[in-house]
Specification:
0% strand; 137 residues; mainly alpha; single chain; N-utilizing Substance Protein B Homolog, Chain A
C-alpha cells in the first residue's frame, strides 16, 4: 500500500481479497497475467494485493513450499494456492493483524474451496505467521 491510501475496514478487505482471489485464480487457471483483469472500479486493496502477489510470487511460492508438509504447490487446489499467496503476501508486506489475515483467508477457503481447505489454510498461515511475526499482531 502506498502512503496516503486509506486503510480498508475488515468487511471492505474481505471484498477486496475475494476480488483479488478471483483475478489470481482465473490467471492461474488460464496462465495469464491477473493484472490484465484489473479495472479502476476494483477496490484499491484488491489492486494492491494482485500487484503484490504478482511482484513477489516466486518468494510466496517458496514460503508455501517450505511450510506445506507433504503437499506440493501443484497438487493444491487452485483456490487454496491463491488464498495462501494472498495471506502470505499480507503477512510479509502489510501491517494488517495476523489474526485478521488468517481468519479472512480461512473464510474464503471454506466458502470457495474444498471441505478441508479451511483447516489446511489455517494451519499453513498460522505456521507462517508464527515464523514471520513471532511477537507481532
Amino acid at each position: 500500500m502506498t502512503p496516503g491510501e486509506p486503510t480498508p475496514r475488515g468487511g471492505d478487505r474481505l471484498i477486496a481479497r475475494r476480488r483479488a482471489l478471483e483475478l489470481l485464480h482465473g490467471a492461474d487457471v488460464g496462465d495469464t497475467d491477473p493484472r490484465d483483469g484489473l479495472s479502476g472500479e476494483d477496490p484499491y486493496y484488491a489492486r494492491a494485493l494482485v500487484e503484490g502477489v504478482v511482484a513477489h510470487r516466486a518468494e510466496l511460492d517458496g514460503v508455501i513450499r517450505k511450510s506445506a508438509e507433504h503437499w506440493s504447490l501443484e497438487r493444491m487446489p487452485v483456490v487454496d494456492r491463491n488464498v495462501l499467496r494472498i495471506g502470505i503476501y499480507e503477512l510479509i508486506y502489510t501491517d494488517v493483524p495476523s489474526g485478521v489475515i488468517v481468519d479472512q483467508a480461512v473464510r474464503l477457503a471454506k466458502l470457495l474451496s474444498t471441505e478441508d481447505s479451511g483447516r489446511f489454510v489455517n494451519g499453513l498461515l498460522g505456521r507462517v505467521a508464527r515464523e514471520r511475526r513471532p511477537s507481532g499482531p
